[in-house]
Amino acid sequence: PCPCGSGKKYKHCHGKLS
């Protein structure tokens, strides 16, 4: 999952892999 706190996938976390 995203380290951002979102429940979306890693790629969809911020829109791109950072």
Fraction of residues in helix: 10-25%
Mean pLDDT: 62
The major β-sheet equals: none
The tally of strands reads 0
Termini separation: 14 Å
Radius of gyration from CA coordinates = 6 Å
Q: Which ranges are low-confidence, i.e. pLDDT below 50, for 5 or more consecutive residues? A: none
Proportion of beta-strand residues: under 5%
Secondary structural class: mainly alpha
| H/E series | H
Specify the oligomeric state.
single chain
Instruction: Give the number of helices.
Output: 1
Question: What is the molecular shape?
Answer: globular
Quick recap of the structure?
With 18 residues, the protein is mainly alpha-helical. It contains 1 helix and no strands. The protein has one helix spanning 11-14.
Q: Your description of this structure?
A:
It is a single chain. With 18 residues, the chain is mainly α. 22% of the residues lie in helices and 0% in strands. The radius of gyration is 6 Å and the shape is globular. The model has no long low-confidence stretch (mean pLDDT 62).
